[in-house]
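FORM 7B - TANDEM STRUCTURE REPORT

SECTION 1: FIRST PROTEIN
SEQUENCE AND TOKENS:
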Amino acid sequence: VHLVESGGGQVQAGSSLTLFCTASGSGFRALAVGWFRQAPGAQREFVGIIHWDGQTIEYADSVKGRFTVARDNAKATMSLQMSSLEPEDTGVYYCAAGGRFVREAKEYAYWGQGTAVTVSS
């Protein structure tokens, strides 16, 4: 499974931005997809996860109510809609796919290259 993120950029605080993750390769539709982010000098942290069937979704407390994860298995794409962005949301955002519905990054076998998001105050 090969993942490619897109949609990152520089925005002002309070803005919205949508990231996309496009998958190729077999087996993607049976995998959970997680979004993670890594701020400069910080560890990679969990943002959200969506079950392979798109019905079960979880979010980190820091983004709950502001971010929305979705997927379209027919198009092999996932999205991360981000609203009310804060400077603390700055970082490189990654999508990852794995066989388990978990929040731990180490459990994910497939990773994209990341897309950078910068939120200025």
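SECTION 2: SECOND PROTEIN
SEQUENCE AND TOKENS:
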Amino acid sequence: QVQLVESGGGLVQPGGSLRLSCAASGTIFSINLMGWYRQAPGKQRELVAVIASGGSTNYADSGKGRFTISRGNAKNTVHLQMNSLKPEDTAAYYCLADARTYSSTANYRYWGQGTQVTVSS
């Protein structure tokens, strides 16, 4: 199994910054992809940014130029630096990992519990 633990959410004023972090643990054989989705009340979960094991990244248009995803120095960690935050960025942010465990030959998508980001004055 794979466990994902997120941190770094909170309340920030418009124009401010937050840095989200996610650490994956468990009987991990490999991780192909890590990243973040978000879900606002009454809306579907949507992509924020992902980073592949090779380093390639993909961002939603809403975050391009403002958000930066990166892999941490610690193994199986990922960070999301969010700058110039807007009220519409308010949502629960969920970490994901496409991972294979030692007990499986297939990749599965695992999710964290979510961390709340609220952008408000």
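SECTION 3: OBSERVATIONS ON SECOND PROTEIN
The chain has a mean pLDDT of 96.
The longest strand covers residues 28-39.

SECTION 4: SIGNATURE
Preparer initials: ____
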